[in-house]
Amino acid sequence: MYEVLMYDGGVHKIEELLNLIEDLGGFVLQRTQVQVQITLILTIPAEDRPLVEAKARELGGKIIEVPLAGTEIAVIGPTLGRHHMPHPICDIAEHLRRYGAITIVMGLARGRGRKTCQISASEKSIIEEYDAAIFMLGNFEECITHEKLNLFKDIQIPVVVVVGPEIESLPHCEALVCGIGRKVERMRRPEEIAKLEEIAQRVVEVIDERRKEIEEDPLFVHPSEVKDILEELGPVQECLRPAPIVLHVDGLRVKIPYQKHLKELEEVEVYGHKLKDIADISDCRLGDSTIIKIRTKAEVEGEVR
User: Is 195 within a domain?
Assistant: First the structure.
């Protein structure tokens, strides 16, 4: 299984670390250099981590855990109004970024009101393009346990629910965090920061479980390997949007228009196979982007036979 880590150190002899990563079959996902300091987000086989840590120490740098790097997570409130979109939702999204995740904040079109809250099929489709979803549902236990379960009961990706009241359990979700309801101020107190840490740990556990499921029937190639190849495409290099390629647990989001570049993407060669033969390529339902879901080794080998 691949592991995503961050290296923080100086540029002196950094090529030695880069060569080691390449020799181990790993990849550099992101490189940020400020004068003589450099930060690398890298992915390597988990069993080779001691070698990378030893080289980092030799170069005077350090390896930092970023367990959610290579994921994109949606943080969702019932609506975009101030009644449902309080500061904690933004605090949660920001805190997860410290763990390496790319996050977006989303409000539903018709989530307001106990009897009228609902989620549309198109909203579900948008949410299911992400690796996990965090639903923040508010302060009223009866409202949450009787009505708002419908907002996430059919979501096909892992769901973490955050609520204000102390509830023992909820169906249709992989994790539940209680004690964070609607607030009109930022989460700054030690006990509030501890709750943000609790949410992050629940998300890490959910993502780790998803990665273990994938390892039981491994992907034909790791998403970072496809990212490394796609970065050479002209349309990707010309893309001015932040992070033109975003890694997912089982694929990628490429921020170039689907209709315009589909044929070009389909013909990209990955280890002797065309991308269309090893992945499902589809139009993103939000913005001019393309979603690539990599097939498993069993799926690809079965088609070849």
Answer: yes
Joined together, the tokens standing for residue 47 give 């069993």
What single-letter DSSP state applies at residue 285?
A: S
8 A C-beta contact, residue 19 and residue 85: no
What's the domain count of the chain?
3
Contact 3, 37 (CB under 8 A): no
CATH assignment at residue 146: 3.40.50.10140
Per the domain annotation, does 218 fall within a domain?
A: no
User: Residue holding tokens 């079965």?
Assistant: 302
Show Cβ contacts of residue 45 under 8 Å, excluding neighbours closer than 6 positions. Answer: 1, 2, 3, 24, 25, 26
Residue reference for tokens 């080779």? 48
Q: Using one digit for the tens of pLDDT, what is the confidence trace for 125-141?
A: 999 999 999 999 878 88
CA distances 249 to 70, 287, 296, Å, are 7, 20, 13
Query: Are 266 and 157 within one domain?
Result: no
Return the SS3 of 81. Answer: coil
Last residue in a domain, options 166, 190, 213: 213
Q: Which residues of the chain have pLDDT under 50?
A: none
Burial of 303 (0-12, 13-18, 19+ CB in 10 A): exposed
Residue at which a domain ends, from 162, 184, 213:
213
pTM of the model: 0.87
Are residues 93 and 137 both part of a single domain?
A: yes
Task: Quick: pLDDT tens for 185-212.
Answer: 788 889 999 999 999 999 999 999 998 9
**295 and 238 share one domain:** yes
Residue 54's domain comprises 2-65
Rounded CA-CA distance 66/42 in Å is 10
Residues 6 or more apart whose CB falls under 8 angstroms from that of 19 comprise: none
Q: Which residues fall within 8 angstroms of residue 47, CB to CB, at 6 or more apart?
A: none
Distance of alpha carbon 109 from alpha carbon 119, whole angstroms: 8
- Residue 186: its pLDDT value, please? 80
Whether residue 135 contacts residue 161, with contact meaning beta carbons closer than 8 Å, is answered with yes
